[in-house]
Amino acid sequence: MTGQRPWRPTRRRLADALLTTFAPVAACGVALGGLSVWTAYGNAGSPAHIGVADGTLFLPMGDTPVTAAFFRITNSGGSADRLLKVTTAEAGEGTLTLSRHVMGAGNSASDRTVASVPIPAGDSLTMSPGTFDVIVPAKKGWQTGGLVWFTLHFEQSGTVEYPAVIVRPGQDST
Predict the structure, then answer these.
(1) Three-state SS across 98-110?
(2) 3-state secondary structure of 131
């Protein structure tokens, strides 16, 4: 072993080793960051599990062209979901829209069309005239106690069909 230099790390060898180690560490960091964002936006855990109950539809009064429908929507799953739209073949001419009741300055109230309604994981939403509702084109011939079938379309859970009982405004559906 005469004439051989003992092995010593040089700057070049250290730089190569650090670069070789950096790539997998950086990939792990990016993956962990992506999973953290995914979890923060409610996409982790069990899927959304939607249940619909207590559907009511206000009987239109007079020549009113629209009325409102309400549902209780429960998400017993571990991920959030969104109600995207509501449809029915049993309404009058026109499009059903999701609406939110908003109180403004000076106790002024207005209804605003919304693109979707959030349904948080492990929570429920009870639609009412003071929160969210479905604006429905009125149809002649509806009578108190009748049923109108609706299809609720959810972002994660697909569609759920559920009837609404026709009631006079202010009347309990039970």
Answers:
(1) EEEEEECHHHCEE
(2) coil
CA distance 72 to 50: 10
Residues comprising the chain, all counted: 174
Q: In this structure, are residues 76 and 92 in contact, taking their beta carbons and an 8 Å threshold? A: no
With H, G, I as helix, E, B as strand and everything else as coil, classify residue 117.
strand
State the residue for tokens 């960051």.
33
Q: The tokens of 31 are what?
A: 């993956």
**Band (37; pLDDT cuts 50, 70, 90):** confident
Return phi, psi of residue 28, to 5°: -65, -40
**Contact, 70 vs 166, CB < 8 A?**
no
User: 72-125 pLDDT, tens per residue?
Assistant: 999 999 899 999 999 999 999 999 999 998 766 666 567 799 999 999 999 999
- Site of tokens 């062209």: 65
Residue 10: pLDDT band with limits 50, 70, 90: confident
Inter-CA distances, 114 with 13, 88, 121, 169, Å: 61, 18, 20, 23
DSSP structure class, residue 91: S
pLDDT digits (tens, 9 = 90+) for 74-86: 999 989 999 999 9
Structure token pair of residue 116: 């979707």
Which helix (H) or strand (E) segment holds residue 5: the answer is none
Q: Which residue has the tokens 């009578």?
A: 143
